[in-house]
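Changelog-linked ticket: ribulose-5-phosphate example.
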Amino acid sequence: MSLEWIEDAKRRAALEAVKNVKDGFIIGLGSGSTVAYAIKEIGRMVREENLHVLGIPTSYQSFLLAVESGIPVTTLYEHPEIDLTIDGADQIDLNLNLIKGMGGALTREKIIAAASKRLIIIVDERKLTDKLGRGQPVPVEVLPFAEPLSAREIRKIGGKPFLRVTKGGAPYITDNGNFILDVDFEVIEDPYELNRKLKMIPGVVETGLFLGMAHTVYVGTKTDVKRIEKE
Ligand code: 5RP
């Protein structure tokens, strides 16, 4: 089956989400290929429509794209409260709980999401699921010093951790200088309990479980965009 619709679906979801951006907003800029469409569109509005916003990027990738697109950037120190964050996701369940982090930016993404009055998620419809974890590992950022211990403790709570590596075989390093364990938990029945257990493990910096954080999701389908609101 042709996958050409996917890029269109991502772009459509991004363009719908950007309609929520208002003049004067502090905007959290998520990471990944779907958000890249949103960042480019916000940049176009800054350059061509005299939109005044400040962006707080969640990764070096987003920082560079924001600068290249003409979005002035700021930091949480200057603006601890963010009006709106637009970000992608790797999986979304029926309660708008998310798995994020396949792009490696989960820790900064969670910090920016937590600092935001509103979190909008943009995805194509392949990311929807009835249960988190089905065919999708949970990325967990860990301190390199602690990785053997963190991986062992993760196995004890039922996960199968795989150290993320680059194409050359070296450990993948996050923007924070840490490692990522991609952990297979199979189907996750209670994501809140799993997140609590993971965060108790020494060396775990952050998990890719984003629970109760998303307010609105725009889902690009083969033909249109669906908007889902948190109940
Ligand atoms: C990065 C993320 C991304 O939002 C997620 O991986 C989705 O990326 P894409 O839009 O490229 O599918 O969590 O850490």
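Closing comment: Example verified and attached. The mean pLDDT is 97. Residues 73 and 128 are 31 Å apart (CA to CA).
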